[in-house]
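[audit] Reproducing an earlier prediction to check determinism. Same input, same settings, fresh worker. If the tokens differ from the archived copy the diff job will pick it up downstream; this log only records the rerun itself.
[audit] input (70 residues):
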Amino acid sequence: MENISDVFEAFGGPAQFARSLGIKGSTASEMKRRASIPVEYWPSLVKAGQAAGLVIDNDTLVKVHVGEQV
């Protein structure tokens, strides 16, 4: 994963991302639009990623956020 969009696509898009985290679709869409996933969601995101068989950890999330700012 190289950027925030890749994270959303790994889950199958913003709607599935939202369902996986138990958040509103509008919240997920706003995260994608801003290209930023707030840190408070990271533990749930890592857990949901593992459950879905995805390789997403805190290091991955730091990488995709830093990549967005470079």
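[audit] rerun output stored. Observation attached for the diff report: The radius of gyration is 11 Å.
[audit] end
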